[in-house]
């Protein structure tokens, strides 16, 4: 049962809430009048019932890296096409490329099961701030403080997960002002029902990514099973056939991953001056590798599809962050806010906290290049990420389960095995060799005082002759053999050393450096836990409570309206796009190569899904809801609680929204539910009639 506690009292009621990612508890706290002010006719208790821990908000479910929602009583779930690419890839071959061609199950028996896709349905939320703070001993040092919080986190999660088929997550708010525990029902039998071809689901590709106007059908339908039968959710969204118009109220529900509005100006400057430029450059190099190798082989094209999309998205996001931070003068605005808070606060502890946090940020710069290289060692080549995972598993498994690092406990082993199994289909040796060389070159270019010992001992110089050793490492290692890799997960560090596997030996040395960095960061985070809450309380006091919590992968809802925007002088964007605009973008070449059957259906101009005001079938729409990464696949609902779209992106000018909300350009991009219905009805035709019926749409 939700308790009115520290967490609930931090954010007093607001008038309008386009800015802010609100928890179900906070929506309840704001009250029925506040919800009505957002334009919603749904009664507050239907939106969220704190006694039963249920309501429309609980129909936002968590997927791997994304969100989704149920749209029928028979476990039918909607999310984004790009959130299901891994599942499509799992069942793709060169002769049956589901990523490229799409898929429609013509019966329940034809649905394609995933080996690793999981759905988490929220059941209960609990504020655990009192338990966490009580677990920190008086006078403990910085790392001890961090470890004390980590220990109680693991205790709470372990107790929560004693219930069968349950997954629980712990979250920190505002650097330690509050802590929560969320209990989920975990469903592991997930099957692919329908996804359009990538030329629909990713229409516009990287050219249109983060841009407006968009014409992308970023939809996928999955079915969730429990005990061999379709899962029956407690609530699901009816799909609206009426649609939207500018000014209509909407809400986006989901699990936004991380935002940085509570960070200091110095931390934002580090992101602007160092992190994003380096990420943009590195992912540009990796993009070239993936694309060049993909053009050489259809098998590699299938293997790298999901990785390539991720790299493309990361690169363009970094470029958008840089443009947005500069355009919004974000660092300067944050510094001005900090000066206001320091001038307004009467709490010496808050001023001390600000100085401590500033020093922590500056201290991190001394080893920034070294730390960046270690952080990115697991993001590219599987020749690094696989052996590093095997080694970390072996090291952590020597400890009692309660003392292991979160992410490496027994509760995490099944996910680790599934990931390594799934990634086998994404492995392409030629690609991996080039990605490993790219990372080694990065490490060899580090300043002398920040070098990585493991790299220097293995690769004495960046000369081509030394880098050619990489090919030998890859050829002789057993880590690429799935059976051998599975066996390694049950071995001790000593057994791994006895293998004399060159990549495992390299990973053992590199893992030691990664653990040293982890220990240093734990001390830093422990110090931050002591001081950041003091500063955040001063920020909230100066703002009179009008401060929304940063995203942290917990369930949130953001309210807004369908709304266009003006990105620059003389340009006004309308908030909706149409089939006519979609067809006009078709060039016959990627990424604007619209399938013939979609063009043929558009030419028939069937009236069923046409919007009378637009005199056309709507495709995508904008709203001013406050979203970020993790909101992909989030349901967008109207004032009556019906599904009207699926969130899939933000506009280019809004990428830096993670650091501050700008109402002039804060727009999220949604695929219109009527476009989904049109695709099923007019493009898929009779084979999709059972799906339409399940979605509540009968024959015309």
Explain the overall architecture.
Helix 10 runs antiparallel to helix 11 and helix 10 runs antiparallel to helix 12. The chain is about 45% helix and about 15% strand. Strands 1, 2, 3, 4, 5, 9, 10 and 11 form an 8-stranded antiparallel β-sheet that branches. Strands 13-12-18-19-20-17-16 form a 7-stranded antiparallel β-sheet. It has a 3-stranded antiparallel β-sheet with strand order 6-8-7. With about 700 residues, the protein is an alpha+beta fold. It has 2 domains: about 350 residues, Thrombin, subunit H; about 270 residues, no CATH class.
Outline the secondary-structure elements.
Elements lengths: L23 H7 L1 H6 L6 H4 L12 E4 L2 E5 L5 E4 L5 H6 L7 H4 L1 E2 L7 E2 L5 E9 L1 H6 L7 H19 L5 E8 L4 E10 L1 E7 L2 H4 L3 H4 L11 E7 L2 E2 L18 E6 L10 H32 L1 H30 L2 H15 L3 H17 L3 H8 L6 H15 L13 H15 L4 H16 L8 H6 L5 H4 L1 H8 L5 H7 L4 H7 L2 H41 L13 E6 L3 E4 L2 E3 L2 E3 H7 L10 H9 L13 E6 L11 E4 L4 E8 L17 E5 H12 L4 H6 L6
Antiparallel strand pairs: 1-2, 2-3, 3-10, 4-9, 5-9, 6-8, 7-8, 9-10, 10-11, 12-13, 12-18, 14-15, 16-17, 17-20, 18-19, 19-20
Helix pairs in contact: 7-23, 10-11, 10-12, 10-17, 12-23, 13-23, 15-23
């Amino acid at each position: 049962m939700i308790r009115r506690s520290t967490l609930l009292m931090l954010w007093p009621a607001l008038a309008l809430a386009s800015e802010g990612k609100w928890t179900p508890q906070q929506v309840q706290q704001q009250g029925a009048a506040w919800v009505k002010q957002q334009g919603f006719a749904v009664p507050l208790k239907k939106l969220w019932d704190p006694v039963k821990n249920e309501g429309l908000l609980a129909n936002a479910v968590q997927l791997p890296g994304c969100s989704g929602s149920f749209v029928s009583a028979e476990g039918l779930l909607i999310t984004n096409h790009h959130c299901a690419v891994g599942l499509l890839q799992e069942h793709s071959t060169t002769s049956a490329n589901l990523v490229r061609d799409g898929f429609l199950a013509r019966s329940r028996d034809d649905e394609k099961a995933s080996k690793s896709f999981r759905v988490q349905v929220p059941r209960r939320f609990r504020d655990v701030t009192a338990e966490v703070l009580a677990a920190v001993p008086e006078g403990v040092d910085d790392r001890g403080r961090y470890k004390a919080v980590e220990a109680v986190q693991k205790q709470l999660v372990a107790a929560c997960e004693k219930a069968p088929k349950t997954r629980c997550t712990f979250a920190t708010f505002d650097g330690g002002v509050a802590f929560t525990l969320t209990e989920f029902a975990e469903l592991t039998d997930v099957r692919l029902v329908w996804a359009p071809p990538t030329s629909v689901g990713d229409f516009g590709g990287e050219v249109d990514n983060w841009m407006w106007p968009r014409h992308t059908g970023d939809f996928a339908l999955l079915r969730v099973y429990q005990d061999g039968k379709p899962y029956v959710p407690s609530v699901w969204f009816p799909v609206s056939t009426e649609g939207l118009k500018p000014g209509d109220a909407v809400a986006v529900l989901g699990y936004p991953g991380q935002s940085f509005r509570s960070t200091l100006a110095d931390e934002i400057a580090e992101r602007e001056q160092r992190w994003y430029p380096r990420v943009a450059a590195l992912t540009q190099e990796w993009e070239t590798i993936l694309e060049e190798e993909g053009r050489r082989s259809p098998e590699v094209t299938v293997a790298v599809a999901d990785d390539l999309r991720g790299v493309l998205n990361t690169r363009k996001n970094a470029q958008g962050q840089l443009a947005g931070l500069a355009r919004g003068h974000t660092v300067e605005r944050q510094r001005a806010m900090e000066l206001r808070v320091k001038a307004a606060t009467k709490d010496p502890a808050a001023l001390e906290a600000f100085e401590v946090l500033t020093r922590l940020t500056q201290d991190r710069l001394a080893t920034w290049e070294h730390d960046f290289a270690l952080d990115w060692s697991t993001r590219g080549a599987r020749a690094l990420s696989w052996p590093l995972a095997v080694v970390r598993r072996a090291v952590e498994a020597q400890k009692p389960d309660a003392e292991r690092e979160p992410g490496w406990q027994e509760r995490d082993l099944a996910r680790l095995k599934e990931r390594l199994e799934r990634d086998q289909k994404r492995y392409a040796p030629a690609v991996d060799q080039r990605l490993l060389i790219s990372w080694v070159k990065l490490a060899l270019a580090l300043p002398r005082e920040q070098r990585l010992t493991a790299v220097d001992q293995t690769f004495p110089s960046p000369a081509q002759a030394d880098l050619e050793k990489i090919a030998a490492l890859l050829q002789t290692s057993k880590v690429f053999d799935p059976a051998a890799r599975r066996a390694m997960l049950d071995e001790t560090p000593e057994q791994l050393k006895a293998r004399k596997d060159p990549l495992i030996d390299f990973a053992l040395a590199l893992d030691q450096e990664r653990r040293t960095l982890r220990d240093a960061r734990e001390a830093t985070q422990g110090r931050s836990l002591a001081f950041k809450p003091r500063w955040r309380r001063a920020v909230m006091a100066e703002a009179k409570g009008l401060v929304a919590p940063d995203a942290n992968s917990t369930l949130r809802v953001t309210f807004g309206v369908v709304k266009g925007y003006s990105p620059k002088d003389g340009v006004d964007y309308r908030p909706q796009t149409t089939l006519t605009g979609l067809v006009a973008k078709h060039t016959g070449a990627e990424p604007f190569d619209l399938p013939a059957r979609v063009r043929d259906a558009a030419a028939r101009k069937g009236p069923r899904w046409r919007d009378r005001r637009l005199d056309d079938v709507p495709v995508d729409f904008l709203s001013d809801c406050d979203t970020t990464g993790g909101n992909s696949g989030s349901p967008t609902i109207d004032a009556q609680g019906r599904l009207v779209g699926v969130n899939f992106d933000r506009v280019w000018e809004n990428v830096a929204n993670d650091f501050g909300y700008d109402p002039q350009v804060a727009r999220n991009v949604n695929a219109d539910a009527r476009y989904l219905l049109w695709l099923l009805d007019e493009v898929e035709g009779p084979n999709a009639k059972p799906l339409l019926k399940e979605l509540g749409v009968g024959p015309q």
